[in-house]
Structures are given as structure tokens and as C-alpha cells.
Design a protein that fits this description.
The protein is mainly α and about 500 residues long. Among the domains are: about 50 residues, no CATH class; about 90 residues, no CATH class. About 75% of the residues lie in helices and about 0% in strands. It contains 28 helices and no strands.
């Protein structure tokens, strides 16, 4: 008996073993789940959130997708929902589904984004419930930024008194309640209410906390009157708080907005004397002020002089000069500056384009507006709500149905702009011209996004459907609208929710 295997048989044996090992390795690979890239996963989750008809279907779709849930994914998916104005209830269901994952804790960004989405739809019950749940699970997620996000939505529809009352209830929710929380309240009032409201609340609450540099900078940024800003600047120094570049920039800005350019230049010279380097914000304020006094060319010179001091213009600085030229109806010079921006590696934003859209709107120039929109689309710059409103109003005026529908389809596909504001004008145009099928399609697209069309738009489509004897289709629309509640019930529920004491939501 041969103890050694003959060479041909040995080669065959080695080949068989190698082939079996390779097959085993490949079969192991096929048994492992292949996960999509982060961007693909975000889009997949976003589609699940926006297309699921019920909370149960959303949960089932997330489970069967086998997408690994992470903080990065949750942050990006909720951000996507926020900017697409998608269904807030389904977004909340996604947020809760992820929260229930063992050992998972949302980031402060995810929490704040979710609260913003709910606040935009005035779902204040859900806001307080979510905050209470977050407090029980991880109180550190509730930050001063959370305070500002929530108060910002409340202040839009509530009185100053209700906003301050809501602020005080955050004492029970936030771990460290300090000056940064008071600053969040003051910033909210400056942005959503009036400067006098912010000033009155500051004086009524300043005994409860020690105002810091940020407190004064927030209030300085809101003053419209140079005299009031000067008085507050003096109070700041009396309290031993030394102004920084932000403080001085606020003073420069209020002088420029008040067309007191000489005083603004004096402050800039004082900044240099005190060793404070002027930054791009300082120069941008001066550029805006020069535009207000009708000196666009001098403002353009400032843009060039900035570089001599080692301060290079950014997009807002260019936007300010472009705005000046547009106001002066020198669109050629404005376009040259926008091209110069691109040449220097700066990408124009929706704000840049809106300056042109405003000029074209008042000039009733649809051709230039559409050409500019095509440029935005080609460069990947998403329009904001203001861009859409300039376009759709001009299309309505000139009865450009095809353009209006193309804009709407872009909004639906790419998730930009306010569906509610744009749809009112679009549906008005379509109904006026008897475009019932197109109006119905846009109406349903909006509902599928979780957005409630206005009652006026619904009534206009209803009349056309009744005239066309399309009663079955009309019944479908009624059912779709019933998901939002009747108009009277919806308004009443919103009022009740706002007037309901916060103590009902937050236990002591």
C-alpha cells in the first residue's frame, strides 16, 4: 500500500479543496446583508417616511429594510424631512421607532429638528410630550438651542406672555438653566416679535440672571434706532461687560441701516484704534448702508478695499453689492458680480438669485425670471420659498401654466419651498383656466406630502368637480381632507392647544 499519494491525484485533491474553500467563502458573503451607502440609506428612509400611509406600515417597512439605524442616519433623514415639508406625524413615528432601539440615544440635533418639524405644524401637544419623554431618557439632549427652537415656533402664533410662560416651564426640563437659556428667549423675541417686546422682557427678567456679553449682543442686533442702540451700549459698559467685535458690528449695522454712514465709519475707526480687526460682517454692513444712500459704486469699491486689509468677501458681501446694483436697476453690473463670485469659487445662494427675481417680478419679465431659474437648476442651487413665490406670482399674472406646473413638479421631486403658499397661487391659476385634472393632481400630490391645502383651494376645485359631475372623485378629495379635520375643527383645536395651560403637559 502506497503511503504517498501519486502526484496527479494529489494535484486533483488540492484543486478540490481550494474550489470548496472558495465556494464556502462566496456562500458566506451572500449570507451577509449588503447595506446601502449612507446617502442611499437616507433616501430610502426618507421614502419610507413620506410614502407610508400608517404608523404600522412605516414600522414594518423600516424593519424589513434592514437598514442599520445610526445617529448620522437619523440626523440626515430628519433634516431631509424638515426641508421637504413632509408629514410631521410620520416623522415623529420614525423618531420614536429609532428611540426604541436598544442602547440608542438621539443627538441634540435630531431632537431639535424633530421639535422644529412639529412646531411648524403647530403640534404643541406632541412637542411637550416628546420633551417629557426625552427628559426621562436623556435630559442632556435638551439644550439652550432646544429652548430657542421650541419658543421660536410658539412665538409665531402665541402672545409674548404665552411665550414667556412656556420659557419658564423649561426650568423643569433643562438640566442647567442659566444665562444661555435667557439668551435663547431674548433671541426668539427679537426674531419673532418686536424689539420693544424683547427689551421689556429683558428688564423684567434681568434680576433672575446675570446678563453676559451674548445677552447684550443679541439685544444690540435687534435695535432699529441708533439712539436706543447707543443707550444700550452704554448700559453694557456700565455693567462691566466689555464689547467685542460682534457688539461693535451691531452698532455699525444700526448706523448703516439708519443711513448714518459717517457715524458708522467713526465706529470702524475706533475699532481699529482699539486693535479690533474689522471682519467681513463689518464691511458688509457698510456696503448695505452705502446702497441705502444711493452709492452702489462706492459700495463696490469697499468690496475691493477689503482685500487690502486681508479680509476677503464672502457670499453675503457679494449679495449686498449685487442688491445695490439691482435696486439701481443696473442688472448688467449685478450679473458681472455674480459671475465674479463663481470665478472666485463662491456659489451663489437662493438669496443671491432672489435679488434678481424681485427685479424681474416688478419689471414683469417672465423670460429673464425663467432663464435665471434654469440657471439655478443647472447649478444645483435649490430655490427657497421666496424664490418660488416670485416665480409663481409672475406665472399667475402671465398665465404660464406649463412653467407653473414644471416649477411645482420640481418642488415635489426635490423638496424645496412651501407647498402651502405656492399651491394657493398655482391652484388659483389652474382653476381660473379650467385645468381641473392638473389641479386635482397637484392637490393630491400635496396631500400625499402630508400638507393640508387651504380651504379656498379646496372649494375652488370642488366647484369645478361638481360642474363636471365628477362626484366620485370629489368624494375622494373629501376623504383626503377629512384626515386633516374639518376647517372649523382644525382651527378650534389649534386655538385650544395654544390656550391650554402648559401645566397640563408638564407635571411638577
Amino acid at each position: 500500500m502506497h503511503l504517498l499519494t501519486p502526484k496527479p491525484q494529489l494535484n486533483f485533491l488540492l484543486w478540490s479543496i481550494k474550489r470548496y474553500s472558495t465556494a464556502l467563502y462566496l456562500s458566506h458573503l451572500h449570507t451577509q446583508p449588503v447595506y446601502p451607502s449612507t446617502n442611499d440609506a437616507v433616501e430610502q428612509v426618507f421614502r419610507i417616511i413620506t410614502t407610508s400611509s400608517t404608523p404600522q406600515s412605516l414600522r414594518n417597512s423600516l424593519k424589513t429594510s434592514q437598514i442599520p439605524l445610526s445617529n448620522d442616519l437619523a440626523d440626515k433623514a430628519l433634516k431631509r424631512v424638515r426641508f421637504s415639508h413632509s408629514n410631521p406625524q410620520q416623522a415623529l413615528e420614525f423618531f420614536k421607532f429609532v428611540s426604541r432601539k436598544k442602547g440608542f440615544f438621539h443627538t441634540p440635533y435630531s431632537l431639535d429638528t424633530m421639535l422644529y418639524i412639529l412646531g411648524r405644524s403647530r403640534k404643541f401637544n406632541e412637542i411637550w410630550d416628546l420633551l417629557l419623554e426625552t427628559k426621562r431618557k436623556d435630559q442632556s439632549l435638551i439644550t439652550p438651542r432646544t429652548v430657542q427652537v421650541v419658543l421660536g415656533r410658539i412665538a409665531k402664533v402665541c402672545s409674548v406672555r404665552q411665550t414667556v410662560e412656556s420659557f419658564k416651564w423649561f426650568r423643569k426640563l433643562i438640566f442647567k438653566f442659566d444665562a444661555s437659556c435667557y439668551n435663547a428667549l431674548l433671541r426668539t423675541l427679537c426674531q419673532e416679535k418686536s424689539m420693544s417686546d424683547a427689551r421689556n422682557v429683558y428688564h423684567s427678567l434681568k434680576h433672575e440672571f446675570r446678563p453676559d456679553l451674548q445677552t447684550f449682543n443679541i439685544l444690540l442686533s435687534g435695535w432699529k434706532s441708533p439712539e436706543e442702540a447707543e443707550a444700550f451700549f452704554a448700559e453694557m459698559k456700565d455693567m462691566g461687560v466689555e464689547p467685542d467685535i460682534v457688539s461693535y458690528n451691531c452698532l455699525v449695522d444700526v448706523y448703516c441701516k439708519g443711513r448714518q454712514i459717517e457715524n458708522a465709519v467713526k465706529v470702524m475707526n475706533k475699532m481699529r484704534e482699539e486693535g479690533i480687526d474689522l471682519d467681513v460682517i463689518t464691511y458688509t454692513s457698510l456696503i448695505g448702508g452705502l446702497g441705502l444712500v444711493g452709492q452702489p459704486d462706492k459700495a463696490a469699491e469697499v468690496l475691493k478695499e477689503m482685500k487690502e486689509y486681508g479680509c476677503y468677501p464672502d457670499v453675503p458681501a457679494y449679495n449686498a453689492v449685487i442688491r445695490n446694483f439691482c435696486i439701481a436697476k443696473r442688472l448688467g453690473d449685478a450679473y458681472k458680480l455674480m459671475d465674479e463670485m463663481v470665478g472666485k469659487g463662491l456659489s451663489p445662494t437662493a438669496t443671491t438669485y432672489n435679488v434678481f427675481f424681485r427685479s424681474f417680478y416688478w419689471a414683469n419679465d417672465m423670460r429673464s425670471s425663467w432663464s435665471l431659474y434654469m440657471r439655478m437648476r443647472e447649478t444645483g442651487c435649490l430655490p427657497n420659498t421666496q424664490s418660488c413665490m416670485f416665480l409663481i406670482r409672475l406665472m399667475r399674472r402671465q398665465e404660464k401654466v406649463e412653467m407653473a406646473l414644471e416649477l411645482w413638479n420640481d418642488m415635489v421631486d426635490k423638496g424645496f419651498g412651501s407647498y402651502i403658499l405656492v399651491s394657493d397661487i398655482l391652484l388659483d391659476l389652474l382653476c381660473d383656466l379650467g385645468k381641473l385634472e392638473e389641479a386635482e393632481r397637484c392637490f393630491l400630490q400635496m396631500v400625499d406630502k402630508g400638507q393640508k391645502p387651504s380651504n379656498v383651494s379646496f372649494k375652488r376645485i370642488k366647484v369645478l368637480m361638481e360642474l363636471a359631475n365628477r362626484h366620485e372623485d370629489l368624494q375622494i378629495l373629501f376623504e383626503k381632507m377629512s384626515a386633516f379635520g374639518s376647517s372649523i375643527q382644525l382651527r378650534r383645536s389649534e386655538v385650544d392647544e395654544l390656550e391650554r395651560p402648559i401645566s397640563d403637559f408638564i407635571s411638577s
